[in-house]
Design a protein that fits this description.
The structure is a homodimer of 110-residue chains. By secondary structure, chain A is α+β, with helices and mostly antiparallel strands. In chain A, 62% of the residues lie in helices and 13% in strands. Chain A is built from six helices and three strands, in the order H-H-H-E-H-H-E-E-H. In chain A, helix 4 (52-59) packs across helix 5 (63-75). Chain A binds a DNA duplex (30 and 30 nucleotides) through helix 5.
DNA sequence: CGTTCATATGAACGATTGCTCATATGTTCA
DNA sequence: TGAACATATGAGCAATCGTTCATATGAACG
């Protein structure tokens, strides 16, 4: 399968393309959104902060599973943690989370 | 680890939460964005349609690899295909793609 | 201190993912 | 029809992912 010619187009597109590093970061970010448990957690935190065991109870899942996922979300700067005694409260870290989910929701409900 | 009480909060959050089906769809959608090759393809199609072999050449990847990923993108309604003779041209199917990527990009470059 | 509650984390295991390779389908043209 | 080109697709395999289980850390309180 020898390719036909598109030399002109390619050079132009190449200029518009962000760096590999940025693209990788972008992919890694969306990967975090690509799991139903993490989506559920983000929806749970949509209105207010919550502690780990409340989220676990809400979703009917293990504390451990939730904690692992919260770590993933935190590493991606999607949630922030605040400690109060024994309890750790998590909240959405900024409005990008809400925007991204909202855009996705629009797409699937069109 | 017996949990402490949060009966009030949980009921409220449960009402705001979309159905499992919607959440799964949402997760599946973002999963598609969660791969650098597919991100690259969407960026390539950002301005104009392209045929499969042009994308393959642009990204320095196999025609087969690109074709598989285009199928994934098409199944998620993120790209549309148009045939012209032997060639198949792909393009972004709507502006949600651009919006979602733009929001993600904002998040990582804050 | 030691106990209890809340959370975090490492190892392990099944499930999913993205690529490659081989091959099939579809289109044009001689 | 048959050859050449463009694309699609199925099987297989290494790598990654999400959970579980066991255990560790950390804070409050007697």
């Amino acid at each position: 399968m020898r390719e036909h010619d598109h030399s002109g187009l390619l050079e132009h597109v190449r200029e518009e393309m962000p760096s590999d590093e940025k693209l990788q970061e972008l992919g890694d970010l969306f990967k975090v959104f690509g799991d139903i448990t993490r989506i559920r957690i983000m929806y749970a935190l949509h209105e207010d902060e919550m502690c780990v065991c409340a989220i676990a109870e809400l979703l009917g899942m293990t504390q451990s599973a939730i904690s692992h996922q919260l770590k993933t979300l935190k590493d991606a700067d999607l949630v922030a943690a605040r400690r109060e005694g024994k309890t750790v409260y998590y909240s959405l870290s900024d409005d990008h989370v809400r925007s991204i989910i909202a855009q996705g929701y629009e797409h699937i409900t069109e």
